[in-house]
């Protein structure tokens, strides 16, 4: 999940390259939708585990940070523009 979250920036930049714009858009928006789902799935599956293992605590922190950051990007790039468009259409 962390690797996929780090590639969001790469896909965002690929949107600016002329001949591979579509690949960048599909990767960017696809990961924006999939990563929060992966984070939720991880929390449902492993969130209730109690462990004092340092790697597990690090994994829990990583999943939390990735989920929150990507969910914020999802809000910024997909949900907010959609709501602005709907409100603009309703004002007409």
List strands and helices in order, with pairings.
Layout: H1 2-14, H2 21-46, H3 54-91
Helix pairs in contact: 1-2, 2-3
Please explain how this structure is put together.
By secondary structure, the chain is mainly alpha-helical. It has helices at residues 2-14, 21-46, 54-91. It has one domain (2-91). The protein is flat, with a radius of gyration of 16 Å. The chain starts with a helix and ends with a helix. The model has no long low-confidence stretch (mean pLDDT 91). The protein contains three helices and no strands.
Give a quick set of tags describing it.
92 residues; 3 helices; mainly alpha
- Give the end-to-end Cα distance, rounded to a whole number of Å: 42 Å
Order of helices and strands: HHH
Oligomer category: single chain
- Quantity of strands, as a count: 0
What is the number of helical segments per DSSP (H or I, 4+ residues)? 3
- Low-pLDDT residue spans: none
Query: Averaged pLDDT, please?
Result: 91
